[in-house]
């Protein structure tokens, strides 16, 4: 399948550069969002959304699943990428072509050509769910960027600097927004504030976030 609609981004896509190596592509995924959500449902049918438990024993408030050769897991032993879903014992669902193509096009639009992700983390936020400030550093080669796709209800996103104590900036991420970060921003602390209740025509009472990584 070819997805030419991504070749220069949707006509009404706005690019905001929030810092060196941190780019927000507003509405970049809006036209593809219905197909992305159908695909998320197919992934979740094979690898159920679940609340993973951190090494500290806390259940994560966002429900999570993965697609691709590698999936991110957390349990009592720590954080890591692995090829099988611990819930089912089966390999993670194959990376859907429509996911990989969107991630490649978004990364290229932000100045990172030839991005081929091997892991897609799917986070599903219900009202009250949040993700505290953290770094994404479990990937083998940190020279690749990460691409994030927001679907459904809006949320306040926080991004700081290389130290947890760096005061974070806040922006609202809305349906269809894509964030690409790499280079000097790759290890910056980030998170999202508590999701407020609402209804979205495509996702109902939820926000979904897809993050694409080259993990292995
Ligand atoms: C990092 N997810 O899954 S991604 C994660 O919305 C995760 O579900 C969040 O963090 C979510 O690990 C946020 C978006 C993002 C955007 C800009 C960043 C992460 C960033 C800037 C610097 C570092
Ligand atoms: Fe993260």
From TrEMBL:
Q: Name one GO cellular component term.
A: cytoplasm
The record's top EC class is oxidoreductase
GO molecular function: any one? oxidative RNA demethylase activity
List each coiled-coil range.
none
Sequence positions that bind substrate:
72, 79-81, 138, 164
Q: Which Pfam families match?
A: 2OG-FeII_Oxy_2
Keyword list (alphabetical) reads:
Dioxygenase, DNA damage, DNA repair, Iron, Metal-binding, Methyltransferase, Oxidoreductase, Transferase
The Fe2OG dioxygenase domain extends over 116-216
Q: Does the keyword Metal-binding apply?
A: yes
Question: What cofactors are annotated for this protein?
Answer: Fe(2+)
Q: Which residues bind 2-oxoglutarate?
A: 123-125, 207-213
Q: Which reaction does it catalyse?
A: a methylated nucleobase within DNA + 2-oxoglutarate + O2 = a nucleobase within DNA + formaldehyde + succinate + CO2
EC number, UniProt record:
1.14.11.33
**What does the function comment of this entry state?**
Dioxygenase that repairs alkylated DNA and RNA containing 3-methylcytosine or 1-methyladenine by oxidative demethylation. Has highest activity towards 3-methylcytosine. Has lower activity towards alkylated DNA containing ethenoadenine, and no detectable activity towards 1-methylguanine or 3-methylthymine. Accepts double-stranded and single-stranded substrates. Requires molecular oxygen, alpha-ketoglutarate and iron. Provides extensive resistance to alkylating agents such as MMS and DMS (SN2 agents), but not to MMNG and MNU (SN1 agents).
What's the name of the protein?
A: Alpha-ketoglutarate-dependent dioxygenase AlkB
Q: Which organism is it from?
A: Marinobacter halophilus
